Amino acid sequence: MAIKVEELKVSFKEAKILKGINLHIKKGKLTGILGPNGCGKSTLLKGILGILKNKDGSIHIGEKKLQEYSQKELAKKLSFVPQKSNLSSPMNVEEFILMGRLPHLKSSWHGYSQDDRTITKNIMMELGLWDFKDRITFSLSGGEFQRVLLARALTQNPEILLLDEPTSALDLNHAVELMSKVKNMVKKKDITAVAVIHDLNLASMFCDELIIMKDGIAKYHGNPKDILTKDILLEIYNLKCRVIVNKDDNPYIIPII
Ligand SMILES: Nc1ncnc2c1ncn2[C@@H]1O[C@H](COP(=O)(O)OP(=O)(O)OP(=O)(O)O)[C@@H](O)[C@H]1O
Ligand SMILES: [Mg+2]
Question: Ligand 2 centroid to 37 CA: how many Å?
Answer without folding.
Answer: 7
